[in-house]
Amino acid sequence: MRFLLAALCALLMVAMLPVTPATAQGGSSADFEVTKVTPSVVGGGSPGEVVVSGRLTNRSGHALNGVQARIERGTPPNGEPAVQRAMREGVTGITEPSFSPVTDRLEPGQSLPVQVRIPLTGSNSLQLNQTGVYPLVVNIQAGRSTVAESEFLLPVTSLPGQPPMRPAQATPTTLVVPIVDTPRLEREALPGGRAVLVDDQLSTSLAPGGRLYDLVQAISDSAPAGSSLGNALCFAIDPDLLITAKAMQGGYQVRQPNGALVEGIGRSAADLWLTKLRQATTGRCVIPLPYADADVVALGRAGLGDLVNGAMDGAKLLSAPDGLGVEPRDVMWPIEGALTERPVGDLPSTMLLDTRAVNVPPGSLTPVKLRGQNRTAIPIDPLLASALDPNRDTKQEVTEPSPPSGGALTSQNALGALAFRATDGFVPNATSVLVPPRRWNMRADDLRGLLTGMSKLDSDGLIRLTALPSPNPATLDEAELTYPVQAGGSEISREAIDKLAAQNFKVGDLARSSESDRAQTVSPGRVTTPLRNGLLHGVSSAWRGNSGAAEDWVRRATSPINDMLGKVRIEEYPGTTNRLSSDSPIPVTVVNDLPFTVGIRFKIPTVPGVEVQHDFGGGLATVPANGRRQFMLEASAQRAGRFMVDISVTADAGTPLGTTKRLPMESTEYGAMIPWLTGIAGAVLVLMSVRRIVKKAKARRERTAVAQKSVEEAETQPLAHAVTSAPSAPEGDRDQR
User: Fold this and answer.
1) Is it true that the peptide bond before 403 is cis, omega within 30 degrees of 0?
2) Could you give the CA distance from residue 391 to residue 429 in angstroms, rounded to a whole number?
3) Cβ-contact 537, 553 below 8 angstroms
4) From CA 365, how far away is CA 123, in angstroms rounded?
5) 672 alpha carbon, distance to own chain's centre
6) Residue 329, burial from CB neighbour count under 10 angstroms (0-12, 13-18, 19+)
7) Mind listing the pLDDT tens digit for each residue in 68-92?
8) What distance in Å separates the CA atoms of residue 713 and residue 354, rounded to the nearest whole number?
9) Secondary structure of 72-87 as H, E, C letters
10) How many whole angstroms separate alpha carbon 438 and alpha carbon 237?
11) What is the pTM of this model?
12) Contact partners, residue 513, CB within 8 Å, separation at least 6
């Protein structure tokens, strides 16, 4: 028992001892963000060492003591799966050079810049003895415990003093540059109104140092027009972003959380960015994304081919003189690079597709003709797509900015993957198409590093920078589309699309019921197209897997639709009672505050006892632009009394315009009952006449009868007199009788 008590006390005392620094500092106690790797590609003329610069931050709740760092090298990958593992899972270093001191003490929350150097060859180095792609690990320790690690790929095309490794055939390579953002435009500047954005975050992104500004600026700096790299770039632009920036350029308002509107601050930033974007895209390859990067597959599944076609109209915005003034390529890059087996709508002739979305042989990057369609598919290089997008194959693949933070590692991995593709992973008769994530979050310096590295690989003969292919369907093998299950699982919800479809019907009904007015310069499309585009915000790729956000944007788009429909309305009625009569029709005035002529129909529910004229010549009655028109409604009553008649106007297919007006009416006439009453009165008169005639005839017969009786009595009078004059009988005899 004493032994057990002693052991228990010892255990308690050990548990109460403070944790040693080595134990406390184990695991990921800190972050090391790599900001630059020099050189990004080791080749001819490169220095004899690699320098990794970054920032170390203590994320733990205690100080880190004796911080030191070193760069380790792993085994070159021997296949695409190994390259993927090196980028995603990291590698175990096989070289163990000496650590270099970083700092004696790093307090909690403190950060400091770090620079780690290591020679390429020799003692205490990376021990490189051949060209290839090498995984490197920056290992940072405090005491004896690793507190932070960063892994990336380093392409080595030649060693110091040796000629560059040149493959027998350079790999044709092109880079797609996505210019995409999250929808921000709640209301476009329709006639008589101003543009409204849901927030002002875009003003930061378009300003120097912002994400979208850096993308355009870095390309302008590192890949000028006319250069080999410049010719190998193709911009994928969302027309909605262009329209939003133009709206900001003209002055806009921002919706606050409480619903109030304040003046936006990004007017000058938008103006500068649009100028730079026009300069960067002049003479370059440009492909339009669907408007707001809409989920055309989900729209097609719902049978909304008109909305699919509307989403593809964005190409006209890019080519317009007040847009970018460029002629876009007839190419489409669908969300997640996938389409259903039978796409709906008038889609482009060439598709950029994920290799999992088209039935091609494993490892093939050769363009194919889609079976049963006059379209071609250009496969996206999956290895390069994984390198450029750390969010690939996650729920955030198309919805969130990627890389989440620190683009230097992404740039290095892309260069390493590209060098591997050009050497051990070479695919003959194919172009390696680099397609970054849609919302590419590369800092300017990191993007410049990627572009500079690509130019280095081009000059060393590993790749050949080329334009996006234009394959001829007649020369290609056929393949079928295969829609990935994971792509279908993240589509915009059917509930959101059904609500969108109901509102889109109203917009289409207004468009079909309208026509341009000669006295006005505004066509109906100037109003209805922005309304439709606003609905497309609800099916943006930004809301994949987020049905709540999709439905919220459909709701936001509904408000301006209702506002435009309300501009055609019945003028407010004074409230007096209309007296119904055959020669006094009811005047109703319809007001049209839209800048084009609108055709209307009257809608008047049936009221028992009242008939009101509904149509005018069997077609639409028109109301001029920015004007009004009075209509005289013929009405009649079948009975006397007071009536309440609801009158409204609709577009051709029944979409309500304005609100319903209630008109009080009164009738003192009998209307259709008068003939009946006249007939009844006539019948009564006839009956009375007949009765009078019968009565007179009866009276005549009675007088005749009386007269005849008098004659008869007169004739019998002598006999009566003779009887009364005879002798009277004896009294006794009378008694016996």
Assistant:
1) yes
2) 29
3) yes
4) 42
5) 58
6) buried
7) 999 999 999 999 999 999 998 877 7
8) 134
9) EECCCCCCHHHHHHHH
10) 10
11) 0.83
12) 598, 599, 600, 620, 651, 652, 653
